[in-house]
Amino acid sequence: MAKDMTLLWGSGSPPCWRIMIALEEKNLQGYNQKLLSFEKGEHKSKEVMEINPRGQLPAFKCGDKIINESCGVCFFLECKYKTQGTKLIPDCEVGRAQILQRVFEVNALVEKSSSVIYYNWMVPEGERHDSAVKRNKEALTAELKLWEGYLQASSGFIVGKDFTLADVVVYPNVAYLFHYGLSEQRYPKLAEYYKGLMNRPSIKASWPPTWKNAPKQETLKDI
Amino acid sequence: MAKDMTLLWGSGSPPCWRIMIALEEKNLQGYNQKLLSFEKGEHKSKEVMEINPRGQLPAFKCGDKIINESCGVCFFLECKYKTQGTKLIPDCEVGRAQILQRVFEVNALVEKSSSVIYYNWMVPEGERHDSAVKRNKEALTAELKLWEGYLQASSGFIVGKDFTLADVVVYPNVAYLFHYGLSEQRYPKLAEYYKGLMNRPSIKASWPPTWKNAPKQETLKDI
Predict the structure, then answer these.
(1) Residue A132 and residue B131: Cβ atoms within 8 Å?
(2) Domain-embedded: residue A73
(3) Domain range for residue B122?
(4) Is A101 within 8 Å of B127 when comparing Cβ atoms?
(5) Where are the beta strands (DSSP E) in chain A?
(6) Residue B188: inside a domain, yes or no?
(7) Same domain for B186 and B116
(8) How many structural domains compose chain B?
(9) What's the gap in Å between the CA of A17 and the closest CA on chain B?
(10) Are residues B119 and B38 part of one domain?
(11) pLDDT computed for residue B213 by the predictor
(12) Measured between CB atoms, which of A65, A97, A124 is closest to B97?
């Protein structure tokens, strides 16, 4: 059905996962896909570079059209398969406006999560400062409170009472936070959202294989 | 004509400028707008916070629909006024795929520009390192070479030979780089793009007022 599409992906990468959820929601199973290993540096392989010259995953192709930006792929699929599977962008203007807001706003969540989770990876040893770690953690806490509030005001999804493009884009990042040890007690609405969608078919079918039976991470336990 | 829209903006902010260009391209002049001063902290005013609780500009409203993410606003306007003014997203799938790729890929350019331009603003004095400054500059140089290559392969616009959503989103960031002293000699395709679109009516009409007759900045002169 989706034999003209190819996805090279890495397990646990929120951008890769977004595309996989979108493909499931649009009933586009059966695409060519290959799981690559970040640890082995396979995201820098010739195979990836030919599609994504940045040497990053995802690398995605639909026929001869290449889009590697995960949100771009989601928009592309929704536009191409508007009437197939889940309608990810509603016709209603109010809903559409809120969804567009959250889809782009997720960048702030990604940036603030990364600056905490990847601090030691991004900052060489001689440049690390406890004051920076503290500031990054405070920024993430403030950011998470905003999203906790958004979920408080909605009905089980990021926007309103239906699964939309906002969930496709935001859910993998929320799951990522809990995978890295975010407290379910301190962020009850985020936890409810995380657990509430865990068994949705599109999400279950694309759950990162390396997360299954993985030991609990503690990176975010004090956030 | 666009009396139901309100834009609170700051001069020189690429996200604010994107919305203004999109509004011009879609023939949506006559919206309510107010220029606020970052220097005076007006982006943290009650007036802004009521629309954008992050206390950031732009703050944008269309009727009772609020979208503050600039790219979200551009998608919203293109969708609402599909047949009015410039067609910003083509029906052609090849073009659409390329445009979506660049619209989201611009985040890498923004992030790498900001880490150089705002280093002293973002990093407290005691945490600054020459090695970090050098690394950030190298990352920006590598990023700029990618965009130089994209322009080499296109025909005067970010994608192909027409002005699209990719230009609405990317142009303000390119102009920003040159405002901060990027070398026109070292980045000739970016410079050609910058100067080539400077007099396009939508861009000319929305040119940042504080940039007119401003002294030349030198922050990026050695990039």
Answers:
(1) no
(2) yes
(3) 93-211
(4) no
(5) 5-10, 32-36, 59-62, 65-66
(6) yes
(7) yes
(8) 2
(9) 17
(10) no
(11) 85
(12) A65
Query: B148, exposed or middle or buried, with CB in 10 Å at 0-12, 13-18, 19+?
Result: middle
| Cβ separation A129–B129 shorter than 8 A | no
Chain B residue numbers touching A60 (CB-CB < 8 A): none
Which of these, A163, A158, A203, lies nearest to A21 by C-alpha position?
A203
In the predicted structure, residue A1 carries a pLDDT above the cut 80 = no
Confidence of residue A213 (pLDDT cuts 50, 70, 90): confident
Band the pLDDT of A9: cuts 50, 70, 90: very high
Q: Where residue B124 sits, what CATH number does that domain have?
A: 1.20.1050.10
Q: Is the pLDDT of residue A150 over 80?
A: yes
Q: What residues of A are in contact with residue B100 (Cβ under 8 Å)?
A: 67, 69, 72-73, 75-76
A146/A41 same-domain check:
no
Per-residue pLDDT of chain B (223 residues; tens, 9 = 90+): 689 999 999 999 999 999 999 999 999 999 999 999 999 999 999 999 999 999 999 999 999 999 999 999 999 999 999 999 999 999 999 999 999 999 999 999 999 999 999 999 999 999 999 999 999 999 999 999 999 999 999 999 999 999 999 999 999 999 999 999 999 999 999 999 999 999 999 999 999 999 998 887 999 999 9
DSSP 8-state symbol, B84 = S
Asked if B129's CB is within 8 angstroms of A73's CB, the reply is no
Q: How far apart are CA A207 and CA A216, in angstroms?
A: 16
Both A192 and A102 in one domain: the answer is yes
Q: Residue B10 pairs with which residues in a beta bridge?
A: B36
Say if B196 falls within a structural domain.
yes
What is the DSSP code (8-state) at residue A211? Answer: G
The helix/strand/coil state of B88 is coil
A103 vs B contacts (CB less than 8 Å):
69, 72
- Answer with the one of A80, A115, A131 that is the final residue of a domain: A80
**In the structure encoding, which two tokens stand for residue A156, read together?**
């089980």
In a shared domain, residues A102 and A76: no
Is the CB of B104 less than 8 angstroms away from the CB of A69?
yes
Q: Do A57 and A36 touch, CB atoms closer than 8 A?
A: yes
The reply to whether A72 and A121 lie within a common domain is: no
Q: How far apart are CA B11 and CA B176, in angstroms?
A: 11
Q: Supply the pLDDT for residue A2.
A: 86
CA distance, residue B216 to nearest chain A CA (Å): 31
Mean pLDDT of A117-123: 95
Which candidate in B100, B106, B128 is best for mutational testing of the A interface (most A CBs within 10 A)?
B100
Q: What is the ipTM of this complex?
A: 0.96
Specify whether the CB–CB gap between B29 and A59 falls below 8 A: no
